[in-house]
Amino acid sequence: MVPKMTPIREQTRAVVRSLLARTALEQFAAKGYDNTTVEEVAAAAGVSRRTLFNYFRSKEDLALSGLAEQGELIAGRFAERPADEDPWASLRAAFQVLEEIDTTAERRLEFVTLLFGNESLRAGHAEKQARWQDLLTPLIEPRLPASDRRTLEARVIAAAAITCLQAALEEWVRQGGRVDLFELYDTAVHAVRRPA
Q1: H helices within 56-196, ranges in order?
Q2: What is the sign of the dihedral through the CA atoms of 14, 20, 23 and 29?
Q3: For a Cys-Cys bond, which of 31, 107, 129, 153 suits 103, CB 3.0-4.6 Å?
């Protein structure tokens, strides 16, 4: 069977969208999210405001666009893990997709600092992570023992793992990116899973 090719138009749209988002993040890092206008982002990218809004619904969408894509990548990586693997181990492996994103440590630190330093972006981030939970829950559920509460258990595991990741990211920012993010994640998971 021949794999279905993505049409060139869609590929081009994805590349342009990625370049616009990257330009926006550079502008936000340099001037601050609240102090950067959409017009400035468009000018820096060499496009009109209208063109920018052909790709993004809002300034917030522009700043958070990568998070939706990251959720899809995480879910895809989880789905590739062995079906008999502990869900927590699969989640850790899936979250490592974040380390593979083509960016520098400095740029990642700038973005996460920006994200947690702005109330609007922080709320948008929480919304995107709720979508991650929706993507992961049906993948976790079949790995759990049969029960009439298995869906609830899967949602709780997804939510707890995402919360651990967020807590680890916040601590990573607090320490200036000088520590290993996944060591912090492991510490957070251990705290949640520690027997009473």
Answers
A1: 59-80, 87-95, 105-117, 119-140, 150-174, 181-193
A2: negative
A3: 107
Examine the domain organization and report whether 47 and 65 are in the same domain: no
* The pLDDT of residue 188: 97
155-167: pLDDT as tens digits? 999 999 999 999 9
In the chain, the amino acid numbered 94 is A
> Where a domain ends, among 56, 72, 94?
56
In which domain, by residue range, is 33 found?
Answer: 1-56
Residue type (1 letter), 139: L
pTM of the shown model: 0.79
What distance in Å separates the CA atoms of residue 35 and residue 74, rounded to the nearest whole number?
Answer: 32
CA 121 to CA 124: how far, in whole Å? 5
Residues 62 and 99 in one domain: yes
* Residue 52 belongs to domain with CATH number: 1.10.10.60
